[in-house]
Structures are given as C-alpha cells and as structure tokens.
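Example for tutorial group B:
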C-alpha cells in the first residue's frame, strides 16, 4: 500500500512485525546556510573497513532569506505605525526579553526543518545513528596523542591547516596581509628546539616567512614590540570548539541528540577528506554521505530529492500597491474545488494547447483554472476537473534531480566510487 507519494513510502501489509526485522540505516547531515544535504545510507563491514552504501539523498533548500525579508517588512510596517495618529494603546513593558537558546527566526527555521526531516526519515526507515557535520575542524584531532599512521597524519595536517586559517583569520600573523599564499610557520624554529604543538604554529606570507628564517619570533619582531605581544597572545589563545562551530549547528546538534539515541559529530575537514578520497564531486548530498569516520563509499543514490521549504501561505488577505493601498482582496478560504495552493497533483489534459500530463505543485485560483509548477516550468490555466490529487500540501515543494556528474577516475580503478584506506 502506498503510504506517501513524495518521498515514496510504502506500507507492507502482508507480514508480521517479527518477520520485518531489518538492519538499521544511518543518517548523514551536512548543514549549510542555504541548503542542507541529508543522506540515508547503510554501513557494510568489509575487510577494507566500514564502507557506506548510499540509499537515499535529500537536498533541502531553506527559506531563511525569505523569512528575514518578511520580518524586515513587518518591522517597517510597525515603525511607520508608531508615528501615525492612531487610537490610544497602553504601553507594553518587558516584552523584549529573549528566552535562553533563542535563535533568529530564519535560523530557527533551518534547525527545525532539518530536524523535522530527520524525524520523518526515522519514521519511515529504522535510523540507528545520525552523523552530523558540526564543526569546521576537530580540536580533538589537533591534540591527539599516540602513534600517527599515514591516514591520521594526513587528516591531522589538514585539520591543523584549517584550524590555523580560522585562528589567524586567513592573514599573515606578522604583517596582516591577506589573499596571498600563506605558509605554516614555527614561532620558535624546530632547529632551536621549538615544538610542533599548534600553539607554536602560525600562518605567514612568503616574504615574512623568508625574512624571519630560522630566527625565533622575539628576535624577528624585536623592532615591533606591540606586534610581538599580539602574536604571542594570539598564539596561546585556545579556540576550543566554540569559535569553530556556529550557533545554528550547535542548536541543530542539541535537537538531534534530544531525538536520536546516537549522534556522532564530525568536522568539515574530515568530510572533505573522505569525499575527495572516495573520488566524489562536491554536493551537499554527497558531503552528507561522507560525514564522520568511514573507509569508503561503494554506492550512492543517483537521484536526489530536491526539497524546497515553501511555507504554508500567508495570513495577509490583501495585496497592496506600491503606496500601501489595498489593490486586491484574497479569498478567506484556502481551498478551491478541494485543492489548496501547495498540493501535489497531476493534471491530464486531453486536448488543446496544454494537452499532456503535468505533475507538480498547484497554485489554486478561485476561477477554477489552476497553475501548476512542474519540473519543466510553470503551466498556467488548467481546469480543476483535469487534476488528480497526489499529496496534500505540507510546506515543501518537491522535484527530483540527478546527482552531480562524477569526474572520470584518475587511476585505472574501473569503478567510480572507490574504496580507500
Ligand atoms: Zn607577512
């Protein structure tokens, strides 16, 4: 039985619960400011290690920008009302406090929609673990002790590079130059007993790097004591996780840990490393597949469900012209002939200019002639009698697209999705 049209979910009715035990799947999340990649995958244990098999991919497009614009519009309306001559209203006090954990509405929307999609997927598939990209780099890897193998060494040097970029604000520590190639520099040179600790490392432009040579920093900056003091203070400053991760990712992390029994956080550096070693191009969905600790990717889903947050309509029942006067009035009722704007429907038009099948998001008109936004564009003015409802509006628009083209393999390894160690 079909439970849901998009994403396609079926309900199996011919067996009992005890016959339906399935191995769990995992969820990978790559949060972004405009788009978030979500990937459902299973982990296969092979002799090469744990490799991932991508099963389903969702690219969620947020509407934070629209929310911000709407709120700015509302603020402007209220501002204009204050100077207008209106009836007396009792002043309101103490209405400016924000609860703990408050996020701007555009950011709150991002957190809520991602968690909502995680919960939906968990309802349809047995999600055991959620892997989430939380931080740009991993501070644990930076200070990790113990033997360093080749893989960890490579990863560590990438994490260090990313860490130093954030710590030194992508500028030369000595002269502040930006947008030039920066080298990793030892404050106290190793030839004079300086260590490889991250606190002893800075970023420097090539001229400064060469000018300093093998001298300790105190000698190099002896003529500029204030610059020296600044560099020494910044070198000892610890960033911890807070500076590397943004508040939205933290809020997302807290929401996920509240809903799922096992949530693993990972760094962006690690995701990138995993993805490039699997030979996959950069998309949000493939990043989501590569979050966390893994040894390879053997398969990924060729089709991506592109989900766009559309909202559920507007409360405003008038449209105004540019002077603010009402131009037209919208109907109070959302439903027209049983359809509402945002419903997913299929229209089969037998003849005429618009003959054919059109599947997509409907925009209702009280005339009874609806518009439908399909994958190929907008088709206007289709009679409501031609439509068949596929799914009620749920605040999202759905289309599918193919996963990004994979660059041809550089080595003669045959398969695109390569295993790696
Ligand atoms: Zn410099």
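The residue assignment follows.
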């Amino acid at each position: 039985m079909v439970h849901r049209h998009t994403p396609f979910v079926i309900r199996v009715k011919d067996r009992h619960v005890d016959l339906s035990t399935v191995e769990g799947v995992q969820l990978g999340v790559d949060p972004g400011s405009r788009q978030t990649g979500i990937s459902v995958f299973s982990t296969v244990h092979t002799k090469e290690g744990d490799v991932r098999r991508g099963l389903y991919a969702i690219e969620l497009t947020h509407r934070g920008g629209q929310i911000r614009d709407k709120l700015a519009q509302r603020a402007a309306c209220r501002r204009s009302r204050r100077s207008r001559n209106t009836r007396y209203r009792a002043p309101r006090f103490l209405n400016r406090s924000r609860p703990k954990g408050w996020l701007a509405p555009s950011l709150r929307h991002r957190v809520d929609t991602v968690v909502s999609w995680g919960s939906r997927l968990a309802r349809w598939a047995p999600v055991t673990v959620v892997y989430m990209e939380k931080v740009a780099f991993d501070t644990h890897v930076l200070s990790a002790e113990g033997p360093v193998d080749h893989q960890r060494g490579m990863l560590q040097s990438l994490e260090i590079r990313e860490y130093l970029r954030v710590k030194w604000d992508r500028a030369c520590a000595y002269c502040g130059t930006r947008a030039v190639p920066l080298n990793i520099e030892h404050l106290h040179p190793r030839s004079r007993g300086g260590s490889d600790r991250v606190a002893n490392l800075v970023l420097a432009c090539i001229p400064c790097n060469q000018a300093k040579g093998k001298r300790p920093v105190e000698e190099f900056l002896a003529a500029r004591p204030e610059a020296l003091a600044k560099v020494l203070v910044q070198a000892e400053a610890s960033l911890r996780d807070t500076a590397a991760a943004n508040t939205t990712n933290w809020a997302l992390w807290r929401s996920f840990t509240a809903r799922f029994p096992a949530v693993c956080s990972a760094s962006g550096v690690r995701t990138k490393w995993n993805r490039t070693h699997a030979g996959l191009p950069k998309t949000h969905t493939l990043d989501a597949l590569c979050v966390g600790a893994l040894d390879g990717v053997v398969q990924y889903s060729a089709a991506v469900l592109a989900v766009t947050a559309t909202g559920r309509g507007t409360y405003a029942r008038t449209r105004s012209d540019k002077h603010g006067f009402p131009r037209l009035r919208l109907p109070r009722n959302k439903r027209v002939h049983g359809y509402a704007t945002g419903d997913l429907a299929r229209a089969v038009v037998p003849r005429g200019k618009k003959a054919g099948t059109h599947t997509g998001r409907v925009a209702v008109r009280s005339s009874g002639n609806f518009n439908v936004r399909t994958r190929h564009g907008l088709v206007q003015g289709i009679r409501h009698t031609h439509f068949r409802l596929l799914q009620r509006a749920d605040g999202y628009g759905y289309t599918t697209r193919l996963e990004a083209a994979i660059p041809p393999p550089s080595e003669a390894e045959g398969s695109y999705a390569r295993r790696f160690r």
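The chain has a mean pLDDT of 87. Compare this with the pattern of hydrophobic and polar residues in the output above.
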